[in-house]
Design brief:
Blueprint: H1 3-28, E1 44-48, E2 60-65, E3 69-71, H2 74-77, E4 79-81, E5 89-93, E6 96-100, E7 110-114, E8 119-121, E9 132-136, E10 144-152, E11 163-168, E12 183-185, E13 191-197, E14 200-208, E15 224-227, E16 232-234, E17 243-245, E18 255-260, E19 266-270, E20 277-283, E21 292-295, E22 301-305, E23 313-320, E24 323-331, E25 344-346, E26 352-353, E27 359-363, E28 367-370, E29 375-379, E30 382-384, E31 388-391, E32 398-402, E33 410-415, E34 420-422, E35 431-437, E36 443-451, E37 459-464, E38 470-476, E39 480-488, E40 493-498, E41 520-522, E42 533-540
């Protein structure tokens, strides 16, 4: 081989080797795809000085983790107890968290640094919950604790991530004004434990904050709260300090939301459940004539239809039990236009009509008149005219179609345009409905023979579904038999309210008045209803639990 050929061969090999190195080099730096998502929070590897250090004199605390970390809302989440005028400064650098103490420390005092949910990993934001650091400037560390559970007073559900905090009795005036420095969060089973407490007398609270909350300060408008009525002397470790959170009734009436809708109706949402509500148009008084008002079942919302919209502004008075609670004004432009489409919904579920219910039509506007001749009913494609159209005697948004519905038949109903005419001459467009009658074999009945613990008291016995929605309720004060008849087969439960004031409703608590919610007992036995089955059970209501 000539020198020229050898040089060419070597050069060719060098280029080939370079290209192969480049190819494999590029492949080697690709990020692996897939794999399980990281769901674990960072782990503490080391603390300097060590946790639970005595005779503490450092100015800086360093906590090392097993992965890169970041801080979230540290100004809200982090606290030090006892409080300091100049709070510590937190800095996150890679896998290190530094806490710089700015203020001087009291002698012979145990300090607790509570990080709340402020520390998380930098990639997946997995949060370390209830991270804390404790030290003492003296020769002893406070070691008392209290523990227990937090549940919902109405549903009995154990509350996760509820805030449990204590306040020394002399600082109880800070409740609802400032975040407590001694607090913890409940775990997924509703358990909590407050450690390293100093001997003393405290008020104990639980707080379930609304979505978007997190300041750990009680907001009556949005949060649920629980409390131990009597101050608690902590001079030893105490277990089973259980709390129930509840939603307080607003102390003063207020309109939460008000709206003049696109169809000309008015919507109001209240912060209270009214007992005997009434709404009157004060100005102009002529507009009050012919108005239609529909309150919700709990009397905490209202929808108003005014038949005269010629006003520039209107003033409404909201009243309860004859007392004016608030006046509210609405303004409208003279050129405002409103869209009014009359729609119809019914009580058909999965194409089936409950044989124990009437076929019900619900409208979005008050209906002034109906024309049965514009309604066509087909039974197995055969036209039927012997049905009756009935208007609800109370609810002006409802009509019923009465007919002898039969099993194994298919029904088609056509509502021609203008079958119904609402206020402002709004008419429906053509609407078609189809369904069959559910067989009675799909329903069951439960008879409960109930024994009460005290015939001088009152009890509300509620039949509830799996989601704890009340299906039916009875108020009793003596041994009774009650029937929950003709309900769809499924799982049901019994809830009993100890109706202390005998007003027929469950009453919530009030911190200022020092009252707890009325007690509730859930029967531990599931009351399943089987299809085409009548069940008879006994229910012995126990005495209410003692506080």
């Amino acid at each position: 081989m000539s020198n020229l050929e050898a040089q060419y061969f070597n050069a060719k090999n060098i280029v080939l080797i370079f290209m192969m190195m480049l190819l494999f080099g590029c492949a080697s730096i690709q990020t692996p795809q897939g794999g399980p998502k990281d769901t674990k929070p960072p782990k503490v590897l080391n603390m300097t000085p060590k946790d639970l250090t005595k005779n503490f004199s450092a100015k800086k605390i360093v906590i090392e983790f097993d992965e890169f970390i970041k801080l979230n809302n540290e100004f809200k989440e982090f606290s030090i107890s006892p409080d300091q005028e100049r709070p510590p400064i937190l800095k996150a650098r890679k896998k290190i968290l530094e806490i710089q103490l700015q203020d001087s420390l009291e002698k012979n005092t145990t300090y607790t640094l509570n990080f709340g949910k402020s520390v998380a990993d930098i990639n997946e934001n997995n949060i370390i919950k209830n991270l804390s650091y404790v030290f003492s400037t003296g020769s002893q560390i406070d070691s008392l604790s209290i523990s227990g559970k937090v549940s919902n007073a109405l549903t009995g559900v154990l509350e996760k991530e509820a805030v449990v905090f204590i306040l020394p009795v002399e600082r109880d005036t800070l409740f609802g004004k400032k975040r407590a420095s001694i607090y913890t969060l409940t775990d997924s089973s509703g358990n909590y434990k407050l450690n390293n407490l100093r001997k003393g007398t405290y008020k104990v609270y639980a707080l379930k904050e609304s979505e978007g909350g997190g300041d750990k300060i009680y907001q009556q408008l949005s949060d649920e709260v629980g409390y131990i009525k009597e101050p608690l002397l902590i001079d030893k470790n105490i277990e089973n300090v259980n709390l129930q959170v509840f939603k307080e009734l607003a102390p003063e009436f207020r309109i939460l939301d008000r709206k003049l809708n696109n169809d000309g109706s008015i919507s109001l949402i209240f912060n209270q459940q009214l007992k005997a509500p009434k709404i009157t148009v004060m100005e102009p008084t002529a507009v009050d004539v012919g108005k239609k008002i529909l309150f919700s079942k709990m009397n905490d919302t209202a929808k108003i239809w005014l038949t005269d919209l010629s006003f520039d502004s209107v003033k409404l008075a909201i009243q309860d039990q004859g007392k004016v609670l608030q006046m509210v004004n609405f303004n409208r432009g003279k050129k405002d236009n409103y869209t009014r489409d009359l729609t119809i919904t019914d009580n058909i579920t999965s194409g089936k009509l409950n044989p124990y219910q009437r076929y019900t039509l619900t409208f979005n506007f008050p209906v002034d008149s109906a024309d049965p001749s514009k309604i066509t009913l087909l039974e197995d494609s055969v036209k039927r005219t012997n049905f009756e159209l009935v208007k609800d005697s109370v609810d002006f948004l409802k009509y019923y179609i009465k007919y002898s519905w039969r099993n194994k038949k298919s029904y088609d109903i056509k509502f021609a345009p203008g079958a119904f005419t609402a206020i402002f001459n709004a008419k429906n467009k053509e609407i078609n409905k189809s369904f069959k009658l559910e067989t009675i074999d799909s329903y069951g009945t439960l008879a409960l023979n109930i024994t009460v613990p005290d015939t001088t008291k009152s009890y509300i016995v509620e039949f509830i579904d799996e989601k704890k929605n009340v299906i039916k309720a009875y108020t009793i004060s003596k041994n009774s038999t009650i029937n929950f008849a003709n309900y769809p087969a499924g799982k049901y439960f019994i809830r009993v309210v100890y109706d202390e004031n005998k007003n027929g409703i469950w009453d919530t608590g009030n911190i200022k008045a020092g009252t707890q919610p009325e007690k509730i007992w859930y029967s531990p036995d599931e009351k399943s209803l089987r299809a085409n089955w009548e069940r008879v059970d006994k229910l012995t209501i126990p005495p209410p639990p003692k506080e």
